[in-house]
Amino acid sequence: MKYFCLLFWSLFLCITTTAQTQDPALLQVDNPVKAFMRQYHVPGMSVAITRNGKLVYAHSYGYADTTQHTPVNNSNLFRIASVSKSITATAILKLTEEKKLSLDDHVFGPGGILGAEYSLPSNQPNVAQITVRELLQHTGGGWTNDDTDPMFSHPKMTANELIAWTLDHQPLLHTPGTVYAYSNFGYCILGRVIEKITGMTYEQYVKTAILQPCGISTMQTGGNTLDERKPNEVIYYGQQGQQPYSYNIARMDAHGGWIATATDLARFLVHIDGFPSPPDILTATSITAMTTPSAANPNYALGWLVNVYHNWWHSGSLPGTASEIIRAHNGFNWVILCNTRTDKSFFNDMDALIWKAVNDSTTQWPDTNLFMTK
Predict the structure, then answer these.
(1) Which of 102, 117, 318, 347 is deepest in the core (most CB within 10 A)?
(2) What is the pLDDT of residues 219-253, one digit of tens each?
């Protein structure tokens, strides 16, 4: 039965994705995606590609629910994990444009944005030095993404309770601004900064100030359990013993909690990519700040990985989840969402899936803007 199901799934994947792709030239995307799914046993996947601000490719593959044999469609929502950080960074930069905060504002301590919310232990004087910019750059001085990551502890605590506990129990390891250490917890703090400044929940502000101006209405923060799955959300499948429903996803809001369709994220990308059309929701000055790396890490800016070729991107990873958004220098952006993950080679191969097609001058992309039909 196991092998029959695998064979059935492979035949379904082959038939549905071939039927979706009408232009033979676009098989440069379709064929590598199908091969990737077979190699890594990916139940479901969704891809969206834009070129010069137009949606030129939007396809979904495989299953949203393997038990019910429910196909993935372009309206299905996926967890996007750490791609959420790029959204949070955009929201912070919008607040700087509104003159409601500065990137160099301190977060904790006397005069800090959250200074009245949390008491600082006397043995952590460096915490009062942390700025908004340093949290965005992962140079806050500690709380890194390892086996001591606060975000994966005390699942019953609220975000505010977790911040208070962490300030009391996990001292910084470095002087703020000096060392890059990827920090989910730092972005959790940024979510609370947004709430303090705006008087709104983090999710409400992002929806109002960032997503709605991009024409996005379906993105939201996800639930924790299978029973809390949102309408149109896929089911997540763990491999190698991973448990997709073991974390407090809702508490991850600002660093890893959003769920989205691939076309949702494509709309977001075309409105912050710095290309001429459509208009961006951030100023050119803000986009430059957002994509300028820190001295501590020349490849990480404010919520984005960057390189000297003027490409920006971010990936996301949780049990049962893999995601990536890419803004390429040549006018293309793309989004890849999966409802499983495996190991490092999985992410390396996922990252390589679309580059050949967008760099091939012979690929015939549609003239129609598929955003108009989504």
Answers:
(1) 318
(2) 999 999 999 999 999 999 999 999 999 999 999 99
306-310 LR contacts (CB < 8 Å, sep 24+): none
In contact, 85 and 290? CB cutoff 8 Å: no
CB 124 within 8 Å of CB 172: yes
2 falls in which pLDDT band (50, 70, 90)? very low
Is 299 a residue whose pLDDT tops 80? yes
Domains of the chain, with CATH numbers?
Answer: 49-83+201-373 (3.40.710.10), 86-198 (3.40.710.10)
Which alpha helices (H) appear in the chain, and where do they start and end?
Answer: 2-20, 27-40, 84-97, 132-137, 159-169, 184-198, 202-206, 253-256, 262-270, 284-290, 344-352, 355-359
CA distance 196 to 112: 11
Q: Is 113 exposed, middle or buried (0-12, 13-18, 19+ CB in 10 A)?
A: buried
Q: What is the pLDDT of residue 178?
A: 96
Separation between Cα atoms, residue 187 and residue 144, nearest integer Å = 11
Which residues, listed in sequence order, are joined to residue 221 by a DSSP beta bridge?
A: 258
Q: Which residues pair with 4 in a beta bridge?
A: none
User: What is the model's pLDDT at position 125?
Assistant: 84
pLDDT of residue 15: 37
The C-alpha angle with vertex 257 and arms to 269 and 294, in degrees rounded to 5, equals 60
Contact 287, 280 (CB under 8 A): yes
Please tell me the distance from the alpha carbon of residue 192 to that of residue 188, in angstroms, as a whole number. Answer: 7
Can you tell me the distance from the alpha carbon of 259 to that of 265, in angstroms, rounded to the nearest whole number?
Answer: 10
Q: Is 36 helix (H, G, I), strand (E, B) or coil?
A: helix
